[in-house]
Amino acid sequence: ICIATGRARFMLYSIKEILPLVNYFILINGRYILDGKQVVFEDPMSKPQLSKVVKDLDDLKVTYGFQGIDDEGISNIDADVMKFFEELSMDLPPLNKDYYLEKNVYQAWCFCTEEIAEILRKKHPRLQFVRWLHVGYDILPIGSSKSIGMRKLAEHLKIDVKDIVAFGDGDNDYELIRDAGLGIAMGNGTEKVKAVADYVTESVADDGIFSALKHFGFI
């Protein structure tokens, strides 16, 4: 069993009840991979690249943050930011807009509109800005994805990607669902993910993973 997530290792406390059942972790959208506690792959972003995007984010007055593997930092904390993290039941990151100068960053993120994200895409063609929920964008190098992480883990385990079953519901699951041997989209997933899925199951709230495993005879 593998968890593929946009989150870092220190954020897995939210699923601590099931962690003993998990063998592998594709973290931060494929940029950090664990086989148990063994690091299989890691690829931090370059500081010069981060410096350029940070300047533009500051000029656009956009709140942004950075993910390391064991902690994180955020550029600004105001009432809107506090409300958003509260709605997600997530801890507010420490205020530290210079985090990227002090530690390895595997992924950045920002709160902005699609219009601003498109401006940033044009100014930074080597970066991708991947939407999550309705106001957030993950910022990571082109070529980074959960699917790339899946391929690197498959290579490490000496198995074929076609033998992997993947579940997903967000745009950052798109490549994973498209490229897995059996890609299953959750009923609550985005239309983009559903369009490339081999099968669409029930929503997360309706035990969609259990339903799909039963449908395909895995249980």
Walk me through this protein's architecture.
The chain is an alpha/beta fold. The protein is built from 8 helices and 12 strands. The strands form 3 sheets. Strands 6-5-7-9-8 form a 5-stranded antiparallel sheet, covered by helices on one side. A hairpin with a 4-residue loop joins strand 5 and strand 6 (72-74). The longest helix has 13 residues, at 47-59. The two termini are 14 Å apart.
Topology:
Elements: E1 2-4, E2 24-27, E3 32-35, E4 38-42, H1 47-59, E5 63-67, E6 72-74, H2 79-87, H3 99-102, E7 107-111, H4 114-123, E8 127-132, E9 136-141, H5 146-157, E10 165-168, H6 174-179, E11 182-185, H7 191-196, E12 199-200, H8 208-215
Kindly estimate the percentage of residues that lie in beta strands according to DSSP: 15-25%
Structural class: alpha/beta
CATH fold call of the largest domain: Hypothetical Protein, Haloacid Dehalogenase-like Hydrolase, Chain: A, domain 2
Sheet having the most strands = 5 strands, antiparallel
Instruction: Tell me the number of strands.
Output: 12
CATH architecture verdict of the largest domain: 2-Layer Sandwich
In quaternary terms, these chains amount to single chain
Please write the CATH class name of the largest domain.
Alpha Beta
- Widest sheet: strand ordering: 6-5-7-9-8
Shape: globular
Count of individual helical segments: 8
Helical amount: 25-40%
Cα end-to-end separation: 14 Å
User: What is the count of distinct domains?
Assistant: 3
Mean pLDDT, to the nearest integer, reads 94
Alpha-carbon Rg, integer: 17 Å
Residue windows where pLDDT falls under 50 for at least 5 positions: none
